[in-house]
Amino acid sequence: MEDILGREFKSRGFDPKLAPLYAQALVGMVALTGQWWLDVRKPKKAEVAAHLVNLAWHGLDGLEPKPRLIGHRKS
Fold first, then answer.
1. How far apart are CA 30 and CA 75, in angstroms?
2. Where on the phi/psi map is residue 73: left (φ > 0), alpha (ψ -120 to 50), or beta?
3. N or C: which terminal CB in the chain sees fewer CB atoms within 10 Å?
4. Are 63 and 54 in contact (CB under 8 A)?
5. Considering the entire predicted model, what is its pTM?
6. 56-65 burial code (b ≥16 CB/10 A, e <16)
7. Is 36 in a helix, a strand, or coil?
8. What is the block-wise mean pLDDT of the chain (75 residues), using blocks of 10 residues?
9. CB environment 13-38: b (16+ within 10 A), e (fewer)
10. Residue 74 has what pLDDT?
């Protein structure tokens, strides 16, 4: 994650030295949410994933009201 973010940051004119911070934030967000979901099992896994991607992709300022995963198989 850190390498991917570092390359993207550099190509977009952001400081690539911040990539480790953002990588930890994203990994931590997903890991802790996954642990929480294992306890409650609601909402459905795909919905949780869609909301995580929504937050990670858009940040709080650009959150979509009803995020969804593209190409996700129904389970």
1. 20
2. beta
3. C
4. yes
5. 0.76
6. eeeeeeeeee
7. helix
8. 92 92 95 98 96 90 80 66
9. eeebeebeebbeebeeebeeeeeebe
10. 64
Whole-number Å distance between alpha carbons of 8 and 1:
11
Q: Quick one: pLDDT at residue 63?
A: 65
The tokens for 44 are 């459905």
What is the pLDDT, as a whole number, of residue 65? 75
Structure tokens given for 36: 């929480």
H or E element that contains 51: helix 45-58
CB 52 within 8 A of CB 30: yes
pLDDT at 67: 84
18-26's contacts with Cβ under 8 Å and 24+ in sequence apart are 26/1, 26/56
